[in-house]
Fold each of these.
Amino acid sequence: MKNEIKTAVLYSDIKPNDEQTEKFIKFLTEEYGTQVDLRWEKNTKIKNGFRLAIGGEVYDWTVDGRFRQLKNYIKTLAKENTGLIPLLKENIKNWAPEIVANEVGTVLTVSDSVAVVSGLKNAFYGEILVFGDGVKGMVQTVTEEKCGCILFDTNAEVLAGTPVRHTGKIAGMPCGNAYLGRVVNALGEPIDAKGKIETEVYRPIENPAPQIIDREAVNKPLQTGILAIDAIFPIGKGQRELIIGDRQTGKSSIAIDTVINQKGKDVICIYACIGQKTSFVSGLAAALKKHGAMDYTVIVSASAGEAATVQYLAPYAACALGEYFMERGKDVLIVYDDLSKHAVAYREISLLLGRAPGREAYPGDVFYLHSRLLERSAHLSSDKGGGSMTALPIVETLAGDVSAYIPTNIISITDGQIFLENSLFHSGQRPAVNIGLSVSRVGGNAQTKAMKKAAKTLRLDLAQYREMEIFMQFSSELDEETKNRLHYGQGLMHMLRQKQTSPYNQHTQVIMLICALGRCMQNIAAEKVSEFLKKAVKKVERDYPEICANIDENGDYSEDDEKKIISAANSVGEQYA
Ligand code: ATP
Ligand code: MG
């Protein structure tokens, strides 16, 4: 084996003199035979000595290196024996530095925070490596001769020839209750200038998803406070519901409103910003603070200006934090905003690591990348504490194309999608939920009785209206029946318009639906619908507080209640006649 090695590289700050060079050549000839070339490369980091790399083996003749070896040696002694001091005295006498510093690798190339390292035969996927003075990185690919790593510190000086050491630790995220209310980066370090965060545990960022026997069916609602979603595409705790749409169609707003709506509901929210503008992140933190939502929220951010490597890590780190709370029996809501940018970051890393590009230049495993992230959302069984993690991944489409590679992948992994449509958004229908293309596959089981009863045929009625909408152009020639139906549909669409950051509570939603589907709005112009509904809700709240309380607390109402609500609404409607 040793005969095959040809080139040895000597790293140091100062070039070795002739006498030193001669010594190295002598050493190499003794160890490896005569067929070795010795090359010198300048490395400003290696002061006080030399490092010699030959094949996978590295000889560390620096003062630092020798100290480290001594330290490790003492550590092993300490583990074996308790009487440390006498042992030290005795052993230091016998100690001599080893020549081969076991498995110290060397950086071959660095580009855009991706480093290729040789000489670490025992590196494993996900291991943290330490570069030079302490810059950390994580192993992404392992081959027999080299391994590819992503660096966590994007500004660190890592050069070709920098030594790399094992830690044997898997990449992780510090977790703890103290994270609530904070804005942190993908490594869990605070970026909100509010000081250090006390952490309790360190969790691997890549963790297997909960097993089937540890899971329970989705059966509790997670209310978004957005009528169009809660009534038609309900989300349950533990569900993964995709929010998809073109740019600037209100995707993030839906997620933010959902976070705001969790106030007082004992749900912990984690908002992972991936490749977002820094202004968005600070705006998000300010909006959540303003609505009192920051107390139960953590923002994990890897913004657009940061390296692809940390953008790639951010959702996993956020997920690890979510799991920490879920395993302690909490209900967690996690938003990944957004996974298209995450896929782009991963594509960049993969191409730098030399992996073969596939469809749209994404590597073949990009599907697995997202499925292993989203599979970690679950509703745990009561044996496991009964916690849950609901995921709202966000994906951006181009010109409404849901059949592109990343959207189709993520649609197939999630339990439904909320599709936001550009044309609806610009026609003023906000949130711009497309009723035909959106779906929620499991959330219906989690809807409260009150919501189920009240929403009745809403989806069907809206679908019918969308079909008939084209007749609107000929409205003067239409018969009375069709006109009525169109007017009813228009009213429903107006009811679903909702302002940002103003989620509705359960009884407001139920009362609005009862009024609309009970045909209380037949005589009201579409533009006046929102105003009318607001007044009707106020009246019911004033006249029948017990009905509202029953809906909020028990999620139900009686037929008698329905009649009362409708008559109250009709009396409000008379003002509009
Ligand atoms: P991007 O693609 O940039 O991430 P996005 O799809 O996440 O955008 P948002 O940032 O949520 O969209 O919203 C885009 C714009 O639409 C914002 O200016 C926001 O204020 C506005 N908007 C979103 N929802 C509503 C709403 N319900 N009513 C009125 N305006 C809204
Ligand atoms: Mg957005």
Amino acid sequence: MKTFVILISGRGSNMQAVLDAALPGRCAAVISNRPQAAGLAWAAARGVATVVVDHRRFPDRADFDAALAAEIDKHAPDLVILAGFMRVLGDDFVRRFAGRLLNVHPSLLPAFPGLHTHAAVLAAGVKIHGATVHFVTPCLDAGPIVIQAAVPVLADDSAEVLAARVLAQEHVIYVTAVRWFLEGRLTLVDGRVRVAGESAAAAVLLSPGLG
Ligand code: GAR
């Protein structure tokens, strides 16, 4: 059976969605860069091994990345799942785990990379927002897209309301992407993701009110 590790920095609701799903794989550990991450207690209560690699204990990013990579390597995972992991990872780290490093981002990439996506979406006045699961490459919030979910932006949305609408879809698409990976169905063709046995439409989720 394939194994995976999940990296978190905070609440860990995407982690919970993955651990709650019946997936053909085993979570070897949940690793956080923040000792107070709420998701750690949740994972521990579920009997999952938890580890903290506190970024503040390292003089620079390269040292932190090396310690994090060493911790991950102890578990020899097939897949590394970034689930609200809020540290930028360096090129060496990303290359080391290339092809087995997934991230969820709260926007329809390549639109709205970076932080505060929901506020940026409202400020821009766009009518469709969403979330993306992608393979991680050295460019921030970029990399081959596995699956996206779209949600409407409603006239009186606040950033919080919009974030909650997007988050619900993140949980759905992340579980789907992880399942596809663990089933060995994801391949990269010319830098684009193909899902064996699925039409391209399977990688697009439209929430009610769209399409
Ligand atoms: C999620 O919305 C995730 O997309 C975002 O942080 C939140 C974590 O929530 N990640 C990023 O912005 C990464 N660039 P969670 O801890 O409840 O899963």
